[in-house]
């Protein structure tokens, strides 16, 4: 097997950290790592992220939550708390009580998970409208077997496709050599306007880039609803890149795209 170049090595880091590479590819990557400090750092970041997720605590819902749920359920004349049960269960009071407690426990567990999740993930209620719409748009991309309307890595195929579909000509670049191959493009609606979306891939992860003309100074990065989201502007366009990737990957994506935009000026 020929020596693996740095771009290929970096593109395979996540799959290697997750144990998804074949034995031959894993061996090739391990041979390339000593000559690539950047890839070694990227691997360390991927492992730290994996370990942090595994070690994240799952807090127990407070007893008061369980008590409030049980108190809110309707009660029979004998004071027993019940929920709606199948008719055939009405003839067996003891079984009904046992099933009732199982139902109540299930409700407590379900709400407890939601309560715990609310401590670690930002709620959509207090999120900026634009960010919420970007997350919703990303879910539309990933919820279908056909994430793009025009499937091609050729910018001369994808860019003309947007003609007449959006009111601007989006910059389109294939970033395969940077580890982000272009999959294609689609149109979505963000803030009531038709918006160009470019879809890229990072190993097995989907990255969506929402973009429109504008100039908004500053860069912001955050994790929202479990997805990395990076916002910046460059070359007369505002960009929102979102994926289930580490923010460092989105930083690399933004740097690669900015370099392409600067090179074509």
From TrEMBL:
UniProt-listed InterPro entries: Anti-sigma-K/W_factor, Anti_sigma_zinc_sf, Znf_put
GO cellular component: membrane
Pfam families, per database record: zf-HC2 (PF13490)
Recorded topology in the membrane: Single-pass membrane protein
Residue intervals of the Putative zinc-finger domain: 6-40
Gene Ontology process terms (BP): regulation of translation
Zinc listed as a keyword: no
Sample GO molecular function, one term: sigma factor antagonist activity
Subcellular compartments: Membrane
Record-linked Gene3D superfamilies: Anti-sigma factor, zinc-finger domain
Entry keywords, A to Z: Membrane, Transmembrane, Transmembrane helix
PANTHER family: ANTI-SIGMA-K FACTOR RSKA
Record-given protein name: Anti-sigma factor
Natural source organism: Vineibacter terrae
């Amino acid at each position: 097997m020929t020596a693996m170049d740095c771009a290929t090595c970096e593109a395979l880091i996540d799959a290697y950290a997750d144990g998804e590479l074949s034995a031959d590819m894993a061996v090739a990557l391990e041979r390339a790592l000593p000559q690539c400090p950047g890839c070694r750092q990227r691997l360390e970041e991927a492992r730290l992220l994996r370990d942090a997720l595994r070690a994240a605590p799952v807090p127990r819902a407070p007893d008061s939550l369980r008590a409030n749920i049980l108190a809110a359920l309707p009660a029979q004349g004998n004071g027993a708390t019940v929920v709606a049960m199948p008719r055939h269960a009405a003839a067996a009071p003891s079984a009904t009580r046992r099933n009732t407690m199982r139902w109540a426990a299930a409700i407590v567990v379900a709400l407890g998970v939601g309560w715990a999740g609310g401590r670690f993930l930002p709620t959509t209620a207090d999120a900026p409208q634009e960010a919420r719409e970007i997350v919703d748009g990303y879910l539309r991309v990933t919820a279908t077997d056909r994430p793009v309307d025009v499937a091609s890595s050729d910018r001369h195929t994808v860019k003309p496709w947007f003609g007449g579909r959006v009111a601007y000509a989006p910059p389109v670049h294939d970033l395969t050599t940077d580890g982000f191959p272009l999959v294609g493009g689609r149109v979505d609606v963000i803030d009531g306007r038709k918006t160009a979306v470019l879809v890229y891939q990072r190993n097995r992860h989907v990255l969506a880039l929402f973009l429109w003309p504008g100039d908004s100074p500053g860069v912001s990065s955050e994790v929202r609803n479990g997805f990395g989201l990076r916002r910046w502007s460059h070359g007369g366009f505002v960009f929102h890149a979102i994926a289930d990737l580490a923010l460092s990957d989105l930083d690399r994506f933004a740097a690669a795209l900015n370099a392409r935009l600067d090179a074509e000026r």
